[in-house]
Each structure stands twice: as structure tokens, then as C-alpha cells.
Description:
Layout: H1 4-18, H2 23-35, H3 37-60, H4 62-68, H5 70-96, H6 109-121, H7 124-133, H8 145-178, H9 182-211
Helix pairs in contact: 1-8, 2-3, 2-6, 2-8, 2-9, 3-6, 3-7, 3-8, 4-7, 5-9
Amino acid sequence: MPQASTLGLFALASLALIAIPGPSVIYIVTRSIEHGRSAGLISMLGVQAGALVHVSAAAVGLSALLASSATAFSIVTYAGGAYLVFLGVRRLRAGAVTDLGQSPPAVARSALFRQGALVNILNPKTAIFFLAFLPQFVDRARGAFALQVFALGLCFIAVAILSDGTYALLAGSIGDRLRRNAAATLRLERLGGVLLILLGAVAVLTGARRTA
């Protein structure tokens, strides 16, 4: 297992990286603004569940395969981008039929969790990040490589829960105010859809440049 000092340094480094908003944070914030703090927190937990999949993959070496295989990287990139675009289009369609006098339709908690997990699982950059970042803090003299990677990954996820949870709570508070305005409700639906579509497009373009 990593030393306590190593875990502390790793946690600080993780916080510095996590605090910078990325696709997952934008997704969480969008959900929180649209549907409230609870929806944002559940989406955040789904995202972290997806991160746990990547951590497990990194621990057993799957991320190394993904990093070295252009075909595997392309498949996962395009699948993730397509899923984000799908969510965005569905959000735009939902916004188009929303009555201005109503709040956004409720979304099942299981769906929020599942979508958050898929958004992160289908993000190959997360796999590449863990592959590049976690080994920097591994000491081969401290025991099994895979066990240390997994422990560091759990530490990263714990920090991410605190950081992303804060984003979800703050965004939910803003969303509560905006949802009192009927016109703002419709704009939130459309904004959320556009953001998801843009995220999907960026994911696809990034993958295309990576494999070119």
C-alpha cells in the first residue's frame, strides 16, 4: 500500500486537477441546474462509478491496451461521443415540448446514475489519464503494483466526490432560482442539450486527432 505521505501528496495533486472543470463536471452541473441538487449529486455518483471502472481497468492493465491500440481508442471515443450527442438531442427535444409554465420533467434516479456512469466509462481520456497519472505515485517496493494503483484510484475518486459534489450543490442552488422563471426553464433545457452535443463533438474530434 502507498505511504500516508504519498497518499497526501497524491490527494493534493488530484484536487488541483479535479477542480478544473472538464466534461464530467459540465455534465454534472447541467443536470444539477436542470433538475436540482439531488439530480446533480446522483449524476455525480454515477460519474464516479464510471471512474471506478477505469481505475479497476488500470489496475489490471486494460488501460495500457486501450492506450496502445488506435482501433480500441477510436471505438470507445466514437461510442462515448455518440452517447453524449444522443443525450443532448433528447434534451433538446424534451425542451421543445416543455410547457413554459411547468418545471422540467422528472428523471428517474436510476437513469441519472446510469447516464453519469456511461458518460465517464465511454470517455477514453479518463482511461488514458489514470494510466499516465496513477503510476507516478506507485512505489514498487511497497507491494503489488495493481493494489497500489487501485488504492490511489479510490483516493482520487474520494477527492472527486468532494469536488464534483460541491459543483452539484452550487449549480443546484442556481438552478432553483432559475427554474422559478418559466422562460429560463426552457432555456436551461436547450442549454443543457447544446452543451451535451458540443461535448460529444469534442470527444469525437479529439479521438480523430489522436488516431490520425
